[in-house]
Design goal:
mainly alpha, 5 helices, transmembrane helix, transmembrane, single chain
């Protein structure tokens, strides 16, 4: 792992060298890496959704199907049938929820890689604040700075990605040619 981090050092250090003032360079470089992690994570998530989209759709359809069956069973007065159908609906929901969670977690893979590089490169070095924060003091660590930049950038990347997907023109439907 250390060899990979040393190899990545050449690329990851570039945004830190754009500004001469140390605190500004630290914040700019960390923001650039947070943006890189956010974009890479969103792209990874969308690739995974392409690979597993049909399975997610199947689980979602199963949930809707079992919900409709359960409502029909309740209206018909069959409590036993409702329990059986509801159990199957819960199972479909569990699969859907677990797969969705796994896909989201898989999109976070750049974060520990970048934090490991920052730890190797900067260690305990961190900008000092003119005031003290509860739980952090006046010198919060690199994880604090990274996360305070990463979270809003990740939210922004997700919104931009959704907007870009919505603005794409729909594919044309063509009649089959004989």
């Amino acid at each position: 792992m250390k060899a990979l981090l040393i190899w990545l050092d050449v690329f990851f250090i570039l945004p830190y060298r754009l500004v001469d003032e140390p605190v500004a360079a630290y914040l700019l470089g960390t923001a650039a890496l947070a943006l890189l992690a956010a974009v890479t994570g969103v792209c990874t998530l969308n690739l995974a959704l392409r690979l597993h989209g049909k399975r997610l759709e199947k689980y979602q359809n199963d949930m809707q199907h079992y919900n409709a069956l359960g409502e029909t069973a309740l209206q018909g007065g069959s409590k036993e049938t409702f329990k059986v159908v509801n159990r199957q609906g819960h199972e479909a929901f569990g699969y859907y929820f677990s797969l969705s969670g796994a896909l989201f977690v898989a999109s976070l893979w750049p974060v520990p890689l970048i934090l490991a590089w920052m730890q190797l490169r900067f260690g305990e070095t961190s900008p000092v604040l003119p005031f003290s924060l509860p739980l952090f003091g006046n010198k919060p660590g690199m994880v604090f700075w990274f996360l305070i930049l990463y979270i809003p950038l990740r939210m922004l990347c997700t919104r931009v990605w959704r907007r870009l997907r919505r603005s794409r023109p729909a594919p044309e439907l063509r009649a089959p040619q004989a």
